[in-house]
């Protein structure tokens, strides 16, 4: 063909030019069918054009074409997509940018990606891609500059092939399950500026040779990687380094002084390791340093004087170490300091007087040191201070009035000091203040009349010397939940307005000089759970309206001058558990309805005019007819027997009935969170009675052996009482989230099977059952100290992950020994997390309370606040630790109403010569034969911290893990044979 005729040819058949481009359209449509997965969603405008149009795909959302209608960029972010990336991607061979971030894609990366030889930027972060990484594919991508697969589920060793890509600048393999060592060959990168490997399962030593990467600027290696050894001193030679993040990866040894050579370093994160020794003074060479985090290590010594040169510092975190000495004066002069957190150390003397003068300070936390002196007056000079925490120190003198003008404050926690003077009246006007904790000081004076701090949720002024009347303007604090004014010198009447506060749940006015009556107008919809008005001079009758408070749990009116008859309705208050009416002036017969019937006499003591319920000398009240009662009783007994018989037959009938229904219903769907080599039928096949391995709060668990030899645990959820579709969607979303969670100490959810009315969750099978069965069963004696301690650590790590490393963070809600499962190596895995909230109303099992959690494990604040948070899990975990130490069940063995926590407290408080060792010996499991006594003391102390009544006093799970894995040195020696 001549040139001319070929032109003519093209003129006649223009679409041939676009032959290739048109196939990009097909490719995209094919890609779409796997990207959206079977459930659809996303990419709505990716449709075949009508009439056909060869450019159509270039206007698909997320698609960019070149002049020839070749796709050069795909950017689909946060759509979300639920499918997989098919091998068709290899056909888009002009692709330069590929961004499929923050979707929910799963499956492996197709090896056909090796055909995308023009690729420069790849971002597949925040998906569920899995499998081993297709390393050979990498070799072909010679143009690659950016490669980001952050937060996926890749496994295996880190691919070494990346070093062959001479243009690669940015490599982020963080947040996956890569294991093994960091390859030495990574030292051969030559253009790399960012290397992010944090959040994997890497081990071994950190290779010093990484220091040879010539232009490295940011290096992230920490979080869940567990290395041997310490920080390579060679890192001090990476002269281009700007950011070094080695947080939380088990580093030991000292901080190398050579790091002081890093002139461009702006961020140094070494927190949560086992670093020891002093801060090397040479670090003053870090002239660009802005953020320094050395918290939660074993560092000691003083802050080096040479640090005065680090004038760029904005963040200093030194908390939870063994630092000592005074806080150097220059800290107050750092012109850019915003955050200073040094809690839990041994710092002494005063805070630098100039602290805050720079006008930049936002957060100051010096809790639990030995700091004394007065509070510097310029802390809020710039009007930016949000959080001021000085609690548990030796501060004295008044609070500077300047702080009362600090409009930015959200939190003031300065309890347990020696402060005096009047509380600045401005505190009660701060618009953003949420928490005011000034208890256990020596404050005097009166509260102001002007109270407008409407964000306040919690005010604690207890145990001071504050006087005057309780201002009625307290009623302005519409968001107040906790008001503690106990143990002061307040007098006058209780303002009625306090009881109008809709959100108030805890009210404590005990130990003051209050007089007059209890206001009668208490709203029925009040949220009060705790009222303590004891030890005042209140008079008059108990207002009946108190009996209408639905959630009231504690009512203490003791030691007042109340009179009149005790309203019998009090006994009918369903949630009331503590009632103290002692030392008043009540008259008439003591009612014996409901709660009042079983209440110990001492809660009525000191009321000389009150007759006991059955006393003969109260003639005005007639005694009940006993015979009448008896016949009633026998009827009730018969009724109960009939009911029990019916109920015991019911499960069998229901089971047969349900199974039949199960088989009939065909619309089953299997959703897998990892590769599964079996079918729905295989799963259903296993739902036989003989396969039942447990029944829990949320349903029945079966063991399933799949045809490919893999064992799974199948949990059939009980039908949820109020399962409307809205609720179901929440449930499904939750399941999706849970399916993405991967942690060594968490039982993996590998998939679920559902149809219209049944949900089956598939979990990894744990062959040694639960810790509860183990320790409370006949095999308990085999579980010796080392194993118990290891299980404690592993379970703590699992919970810690749920609380602190999942986003959004997950509250377990039902931590108990029966939910800690042991695999074939007896490694502990936390099971059944995050689901309890969907089963409140079902009342599924006797061991699960109707509210949240299981009896014996429920944190006390639940009764007051009806809220669960991470700290409620910590309490439950403390109970598990006590089970490990004592070998006893949380409830049942100690008599009515006593649980393991109360039993331990009682037993240890009755010791004639109390000490930690004596306490442990008094409660320890007698089946333990040889164990390190100091180790047991350590575990015991941690357990008791976790079960503190006050949730704020409990450690976080992160702190628990730290305490468990860093026992005091003495806890490791002294093997005591008992
Ligand atoms: C991809 O699109 C998002 C918005 O949808 C945008 O924020 C992001 O910068 C884009 N990325 C690239 C690499 O073009
Ligand atoms: C590819 O991404 C880079 C970096 O985000 C951007 O600068 C470039 O314009 C993108 N190219 C195309 C063709 O979208
Ligand atoms: C999809 O993934 C995002 C994070 O990448 C997550 O927040 C979201 O909950 C997931 N959606 C579902 C339905 O699982």
UniProtKB/TrEMBL annotation:
The keyword Membrane applies. Keywords: Glycoprotein, Leucine-rich repeat, Membrane, Repeat, Signal, Transmembrane, Transmembrane helix. InterPro entries: Kinase-like_dom_sf (IPR011009), Leu-rich_rpt (IPR001611), Leu-rich_rpt_typical-subtyp (IPR003591), LRR_dom_sf (IPR032675), LRR_N_plant-typ (IPR013210), Plant_LRR-RLKs (IPR050647), Prot_kinase_dom (IPR000719), Ser-Thr/Tyr_kinase_cat_dom (IPR001245). It is found in: Membrane. Residues 687-965 form the Protein kinase domain. The chain crosses the membrane at residues 636-657. It comes from the Eukaryota. Residues 1-21 form the signal peptide. Coiled coil: none annotated. The keyword Magnesium does not apply. Belongs to the protein kinase superfamily. Ser/Thr protein kinase family. This is Protein kinase domain-containing protein.
């Amino acid at each position: 063909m001549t040139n001319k005729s070929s032109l003519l040819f093209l003129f006649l058949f223009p679409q041939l030019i676009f032959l290739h481009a048109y196939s990009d359209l097909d490719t995209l449509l094919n890609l779409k069918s796997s990207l959206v997965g079977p459930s659809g969603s996303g990419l709505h405008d990716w449709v075949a054009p009508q009439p056909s149009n060869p450019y159509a795909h270039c206007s698909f959302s997320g698609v960019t074409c070149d002049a020839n209608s070749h796709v050069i960029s795909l950017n689909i972010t946060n759509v979300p997509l639920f499918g997989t990336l098919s091998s068709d991607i290899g056909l888009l061979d002009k692709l330069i940018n590929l961004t499929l971030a923050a979707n929910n894609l799963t499956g492996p990366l197709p090896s056909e990606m090796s055909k995308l030889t023009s690729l420069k930027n790849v971002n597949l972060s925040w998906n569920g891609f899995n499998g081993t990484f297709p390393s050979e594919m990498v070799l072909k991508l010679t143009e690659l500059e950016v490669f980001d697969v952050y937060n996926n589920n890749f496994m295996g060793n880190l691919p070494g092939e990346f070093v062959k890509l001479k243009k690669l600048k940015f490599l982020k393999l963080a947040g996956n399950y890569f294991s093994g060592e960091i390859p030495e060959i990574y030292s051969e990168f030559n253009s790399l500026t960012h290397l992010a490997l944090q959040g994997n399962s890497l081990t071994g030593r950190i290779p010093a040779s990484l220091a040879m990467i010539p232009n490295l600027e940011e290096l992230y290696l920490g979080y869940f990687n567990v290395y041997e050894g310490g920080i390579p001193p060679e890192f001090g030679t990476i002269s281009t380094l700007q950011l070094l993040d080695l947080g939380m990866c088990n580093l030991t040894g000292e901080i190398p002084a050579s790091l002081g050579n890093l002139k461009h370093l702006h961020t140094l994160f070494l927190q949560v390791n086992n670093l020891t020794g002093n801060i090397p003074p040479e670090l003053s060479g870090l002239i660009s340093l802005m953020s320094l985090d050395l918290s939660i290590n074993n560092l000691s010594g003083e802050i080096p004087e040479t640090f005065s040169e680090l004038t760029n510092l904005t963040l200093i975190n030194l908390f939870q170490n063994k630092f000592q000495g005074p806080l150097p004066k220059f800290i107050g002069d750092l012109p850019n300091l915003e955050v200073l957190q040094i809690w839990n150390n041994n710092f002494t003397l005063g805070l630098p007087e100039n602290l805050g003068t720079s006008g930049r300070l936002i957060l100051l936390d010096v809790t639990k040191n030995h700091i004394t002196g007065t509070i510097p007056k310029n802390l809020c000079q710039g009007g930016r201070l949000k959080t001021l925490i000085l609690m548990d120190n030796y501060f004295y003198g008044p609070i500077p009035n300047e702080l009362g003008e600090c409009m930015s404050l959200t939190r003031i926690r300065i309890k347990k000091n020696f402060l005096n003077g009047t509380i600045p009246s401005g505190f009660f006007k701060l618009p953003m203040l949420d928490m005011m904790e000034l208890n256990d000081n020596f404050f005097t004076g009166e509260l102001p009349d002007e109270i407008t701090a409407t964000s306040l949720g919690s005010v604690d002024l207890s145990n001071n010397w504050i006087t005057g009347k309780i201002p009625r303007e307290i009623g302005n604090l519409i968001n107040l939940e906790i008001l503690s004014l106990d143990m002061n010198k307040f007098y006058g009447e209780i303002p009625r307005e306090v009881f109008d506060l809709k959100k108030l749940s805890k009210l404590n006015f005990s130990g003051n000089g209050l007089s007059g009556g209890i206001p009668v107008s208490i709203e029925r919809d009040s949220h009060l759970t705790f009222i303590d008005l004891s030890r005042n001079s209140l008079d008059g009758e108990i207002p009946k309206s108190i009996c209408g408070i639905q959630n009231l749990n504690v009512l203490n009116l003791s030691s007042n001058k109340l009179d009149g008859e005790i309203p019998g309705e009090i006994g009918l208050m369903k949630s009331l558990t503590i009632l103290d009416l002692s030392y008043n002036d009540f008259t008439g017969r003591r009612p014996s309805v409901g709660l009042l019937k079983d209440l110990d006499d001492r809660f009525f003591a000191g009321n000389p005019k009150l007759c006991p319920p059955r006393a003969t000398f109260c003639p005005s009240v007639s005694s009940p007819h006993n015979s009448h009662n008896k016949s009633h009783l026998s009827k009730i007994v018969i009724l109960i027997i009939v009911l029990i018989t019916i109920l015991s037959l019911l499960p069998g009938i229901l089971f047969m009935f349900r199974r039949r229904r199960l088989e009939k219903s065909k619309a089953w769907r299997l959703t897998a969170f990892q590769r599964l080599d079996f079918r729905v039928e295989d799963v259903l096949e296993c739902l036989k009675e003989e396969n039942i391995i447990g029944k829990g709060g949320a349903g029945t668990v079966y063991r399933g052996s799949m045809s490919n030899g893999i064992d799974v645990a199948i949990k059939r959820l009980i039908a949820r009482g109020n399962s409307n579709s809205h609720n179901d969607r929440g449930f499904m979303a939750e399941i999706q989230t849970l399916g993405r969670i991967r942690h060594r100490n968490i039982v993996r959810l590998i998939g679920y099977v559902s149809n219209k009315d049944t949900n089956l969750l598939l979990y990894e099978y744990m062959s040694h059952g639960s810790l509860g069965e183990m320790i409370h069963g006949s095999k308990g004696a085999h579980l010796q100290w080392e194993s118990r301690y290891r299980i404690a650590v592993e379970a703590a790590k699992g919970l810690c992950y749920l609380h602190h490393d999942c986003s959004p963070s997950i509250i377990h809600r039902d931590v108990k020994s029966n939910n800690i499962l042991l695999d074939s190596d007896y490694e502990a895995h936390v099971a059944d997390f995050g689901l309890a909230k969907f089963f409140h109303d079902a009342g599924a099992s006797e061991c699960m309370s109707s509210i949240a959690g299981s009896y014996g494990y429920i944190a006390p604040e639940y009764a007051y606040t009806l809220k669960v948070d991470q700290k409620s899990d910590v309490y439950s975990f403390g109970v598990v630790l006590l089970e490990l130490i004592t070998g006893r069940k949380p409830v049942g063995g100690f008599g009515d109403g006593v649980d393991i926590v109360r039993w331990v407290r009682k037993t240890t408080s009755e010791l004639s010569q109390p000490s930690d060792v004596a306490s442990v010996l008094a409660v320890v499991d007698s089946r333990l034969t040889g164990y390190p006594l100091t180790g047991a003391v350590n575990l015991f102390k941690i357990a008791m911290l976790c079960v503190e009544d006050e949730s704020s006093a409990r450690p976080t799970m992160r702190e628990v893990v730290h305490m468990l894995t860093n026992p005091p040195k003495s806890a490791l020696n002294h093997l005591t044979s008992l």
